[in-house]
Each structure stands twice: as structure tokens, then as C-alpha cells.
Amino acid sequence: MFTFGITKKIVSYRFKHFFFVIPFYILSSCGEKIKKGTAELPESKKNEEKLSDHNEWLGHLGTFRNGLASGKDIKLDWLDSEPPLLWKKELGVGVAGVSGLDEYVYSMGNVKGKDVIYCINAVTGKIKWEESYNCIIDKRMFEGGPPTTPLIDKKNKNLYALSHQGELRCLSLNSGVMQWKVSYTSAPLAGRRPDYGYASSPTIYNDMLIVSPGGKDSSVAALDLKDGAMLWSSGGSKVGYSSPIIFSLLGSDYMAQLNASDLSIFNISTNSLICKTSWETKYRINAAAPIYINGHILITSGYGKGAGLFKVHDEKLELVYESKQLVCQFQSPILKNGFIYAVTGDNDKKASLVCMNPINGKIMWNEPLSGNRGNVVAVDDSLIVLTERGEVIVCSATDKSYNERGRFQAVGGRCWAAPTICGSRLYIRNNSGRLMCYNLKKN
Question: What confidence score (pLDDT) does residue 328 get?
């Protein structure tokens, strides 16, 4: 009888509040309206695809920060046999990717409280030089260690390496000798370190190194390549974990940077911020690199936020559409043959490889993967996909359907760094620091 009495009271309470709960639920469900639209991306004005040269992968996502490589005598059909392992190396903890030029590759890891920058012979795996400095591992929510890929300055034969604490070092490519060093958090940059450390990779424009300190007046800044002196700074947004991209529009050069809470566009010729628009996620985390598509910028985030396509015109950003089907926590999408390819997924969403039409955000196909995240790059008309669990898959870069041509387990553990293709070799590293080099060369 006691239980029944309690039940009657609960039912009565629920009934009385029925007309409150239902409208509240409806309002909550409808509160997050996403915009639908269609972009004007004529076939005659497709993006020119800039490919990293055969023996080059100069920084984060390649020479042109787009994840595209040119193939030369590369075997990309692994159904009968997987690529042979050339060598492996322990780098130390971190999620820094691999950059490469000719016969050497470069990366970073943290070993016993020190960041170590490596120059490694690409053929033999032997270390040519290494440079280390004190840096806490900062293990929070992931393994920790350096998160940025070293940037190769081919012209001046230097290497730029950034720690999560904001120390930027310029080293000689040949010897590893330090040329200069600057701190993002000290004057004149006066940046504000993000909660999980600096993870935005610098980029080179003409004779300037573009960096992202995230200061009150230095959301972005340009440094002199010769000595690291600040040339100019602009913007006041708090920096996120995304790396900036450079693009040309109507005869001028611009830079797009996805910050902690906004997308900002800078005119590099005038060193000024021309426009920005809010892009808020849970915890103010934005980490995937933007993509430029014929007068438009595509950005994507995790934590349920999804993607947005913005048109850049009249010095403003106009939202064309949003998509909840392209969710990328930190893994960056790529644009290949007019379509977007990405590994969707975050803490709450299982990973899938998707092909998306950038005109309207339509998903052309979807292939489930292991883990919650992963990365994709392209070689010629093929995609190379690295799952979070270290499996590498090759498939066709086509919007028609998912067409797999082989897979193999490249490394164990968790993998957050994107793959590198350089000199007919594939480089895969896990967060614990194991770097694997595979031979993709035919015969």
C-alpha cells in the first residue's frame, strides 16, 4: 500500500507538469536551428590543387597545409601485400607530426621532462642530430608532449619548432644549432596560452613567419625569418588549437584562423583583421584547420558543433550552411577533386570516413572506422586514412562510393598525428612516440 501511494503521487505530479515538460522539450529541441543553404561553387572555378612535391612535406598537413601529396612510383594497392616496414624509432610522448625534405625527416617528442627535436635519415632511420630543452609533459586528458609539427624553411635551410608552452625555436636544418628563440607569452607578442597548450603550427608567407600567440593585440603576428623580430601583429582573439591557412581572393592574399571562439580573416597585405564571426563550442575548443574553397571557408569542430561554410565577400563572412554530420574534434578535413574527405568523430561520436559535397553539405558516403577519431591525406587519386587505433587504409578519392584497396595495422596505441607521405615513404606515429616508416615504392 505504501508503494502504491507513492506511485499515485508520482503519476499525479507528472500529469500536472505534463503541459510544462512537453513545451519545454519542444523548445529545447528546436532551439538549435542549423542553417541550410547552397554555395555558388561553379565547376569552372574549382580550386587549384597544390601538391607537396615527391620529396617534400614541409610542415603540418604537407607543404601547402592541405594534406595533398604527389605520387611517384608509389604502390597504393595493398590487397595482396601490405607495405614493408623500413625502420621504427622511439621519439618520446607527443602528437607532433613528421615533416620531410629530401633524405631527412623531422619530428618531436617528450622524454623524461625534456622536449626533443629530431633530424632522422629517411632511408636508414638513424638520427643525424637531436636538440632538447626542459619542458613539462603536461599530461591532461591525453598523453601530453609537443602537439605541433616542425616547419621546414626550405629557402633559408631552417626548422621552426614550437613547444606547448609557447617557446618557438629556429634551428639549422643541417646541424640543429639554434639560430634564435622567442616566447609567445613574453613581450612583444604577449600571448595567452590556451588551456591545453599551444598547438597551432606556424606557416611561412614570403619572408615572414606567421604565428598565433593569441594575445590581446596579437591573435596573429608576423616574425622576421632571420632573427624572430616581430614585424606586425593583429587581432585580439584568444587562440585555439587550429592552424591558420593562407589563400588568395581577388588579387589579394588573406589568412583564415579558427580561434577559440571565432573564425577570423586577415588581409596579409595590410596586416589587418578584416572580419570575424562567432564559432563557439563546448570548452571553447576549435582545433581542425580551415579549408578555402573558391571564395568560401569551411570550418569544422567537435563537441557536437559540426561544420559551417562561410562565404567571404565585401570584407565580411556570410554563413551559407551548417552541418551536424561533419564533426571533427581536431582532425582536419581535406579537399580533393572537388569533394571534402574527413574522419568525423570526437569524444562522444564514433569515427567514420565521410565524403561530403561542399556545395550543400550533403554526405555522399560514410564508412565506419575503429576508434573515435582519425586522419586522412591524399596521394594522386587515393586517400590514405589513419585510424585512431593505428590502422592504415587506402581507398579511392571518389564521391561515388567507398572503394577500399587494402589496409594494415601500422602501429599499436593511440594515434592523433596525421600521416606523412614523403619520398615514397609513409610515416605513422602514435601518441606514445613510436614512429614507423613504411616503403610505398613500387617493386
Answer: 98
Sort residue 257 into left (φ over 0), alpha (ψ -120 to 50) or beta.
Answer: beta
Torsions phi, psi of 212, nearest 5?
A: -130, 80
Share in percent of the chain as helix, strand, coil (round to 5)? 10, 45, 50
Assess contact for 145 and 198: CB atoms under 8 A. no
Given a cut of 70, the residues of the chain with pLDDT beneath it are: 1-32, 42-46
Cα separations in angstroms, 131 against 106, 115, 126, 173, 235: 11, 8, 15, 11, 33
Torsion of CA 301, 307, 313, 317, to 10 degrees: -60
Q: How high is the pLDDT of residue 406?
A: 97
Q: Is 346 helix (H, G, I), strand (E, B) or coil?
A: strand
Place of cell 569533394: 339
Q: Which of 178, 157, 283, 300 is nearest to 228 (CA)?
A: 178
**Burial category of 367 from C-beta neighbours within 10 Å (exposed 0-12, middle 13-18, buried 19 and up):** middle
Show Cβ contacts of residue 24 under 8 Å, excluding neighbours closer than 6 positions.
none
* Other Cβ atoms closer than 10 A to 211: 29
C-alpha to C-alpha distance for 440 and 130, rounded to whole angstroms: 27
Q: Is the pTM of this model over 0.70?
A: yes
Mind listing the pLDDT tens digit for each residue in 152-172? 999 999 999 999 999 999 999
Structure confidence by residue, pLDDT tens digits, 256-274: 999 999 999 999 999 999 9
What pLDDT does residue 11 have?
38
**ω into residue 188 within 30 of 0, thus cis?**
yes
